[in-house]
Amino acid sequence: MQYLLTDFLTNPGFSTNPGFLTNLGILANPGSINPGLGTVLWSALAVVLLLLQVPAIAILLSRLLQGPRRYPPLQPKAATPGLFGQVSIVVPTLNEAARITPCLTGLSRQSYEVREILVVDSRSQDGTVELVKAAQAKDPRFRVLTDDPLPPGWVGRPWALHTGFLNSSEASEWILGIDADTQPQPGLVASLVTTAVEQGYDLVSLSPRFILKDLGEFWLQPALLMTLVYRFGAAGVDAEGSERVMANGQCFLCRRSLLVSLGGYTSARSSFCDDVTLARYAAAQGAKVGFLDGAKVLQVRMYEGMAETWKEWGRSLDLKDAASVGQKWGDLGFLLAVQGLPLFACLFLGLGVLFGYTALPVQIALGINALLVAIRLGLLAAIAPSYNFSQAQASWSFWLSPLADPFAVYRIFLSSIRTPTQWRGRSYGRE
Length: 431
Known about the structure:
Elements: H1 2-10, H2 18-24, H3 35-64, E1 87-93, H4 101-108, E2 114-121, H5 128-138, E3 142-146, H6 156-166, E4 174-178, E5 182-184, H7 188-199, E6 203-207, E7 209-211, H8 215-232, E8 251-255, H9 256-262, H10 274-284, E9 289-293, E10 298-300, H11 305-313, H12 325-340, H13 342-354, H14 360-383, E11 387-388, H15 405-416, E12 422-423, E13 426-427
Parallel strand pairs: 1-2, 1-4, 2-3, 6-9, 7-10, 7-11
Antiparallel strand pairs: 4-8, 5-10, 6-8, 12-13
Helix pairs in contact: 3-12, 3-14, 8-11, 8-15, 12-15, 13-14
């Protein structure tokens, strides 16, 4: 070996000599080049994968196996006299004219359980306020407020929600935050409040039905959504602890008394995932918090196209503002093991088996990664009802979304190492 290395250093052409490679045993052709060394290398790689993936799979299965016991999707319900005037709705807006009309229409179709609809605008310049005033002319429950300039340490969305809460009627038992990009269906609010009362929730939010349109959206968005399913399980499943609580601010119902005790939205004032931050803080204080399936009562068109989905949704999906450093990086490693690696691992390990490296660790690792791919395909079918395909231009790409999984995990990584400096038209002096 000493002479081989000497010749390699003194003779540049020697490194391409097949005899040199054969003696080192680094070619992958089994049966002709040091098969023992190749077997060791492939086995070592398989063992590393197993050490990373086996604990992650155990965690994943413990979450997914709770799915059959989850609370069923909410159904539209009619209001009852006991719900009269129980809810104040708060809608934060900033230049939402292009998409707020379906939201206003949906809210106007809610019944007498809604006392008032407060649209808290942050000085929109695109005609948002005019659209709300036109809705107010038909439904006096609408009212436009303009929030004060953003105080230091606050993010725009929780500040608008906090302003709406402070200006809401004290006679309302519930505060419902609704995003301007949602499309509330008839019976949403009555169903949400009735469920909260029956199940004893102090705070409950809903997962919506997503409206996607083009090929890129259908390919990327389900992969990003799957990062949430893997980390927190299906909607309707009880969280493992306050630090694992999931929430969605697009439709976020909270008892007024709880908000009062929490100081409104102040605990989430600096968070870019204020919904999860507030929900986890409430759960840590002893509140009963739920995250339920609202696909039958709430639809949402969040972003226009794949690029906007990658930029806007991707930068908050890490949920770092609501998690410890250990949880943030632990979740990222978990996602890498169960979502980011399996397709690559199946291809690579399958190639090894094809070359004749069939040691037991290689076969086990290949089987485990094939299982993960099968689970991913099964979950894709499971989340299909959470999508509205009626406006789709290329919905078939939804079924190819597992190919976007490595990119989705990479997007979570990018978000984990960055702090947003712009959000919904606002700039923040944060690095």
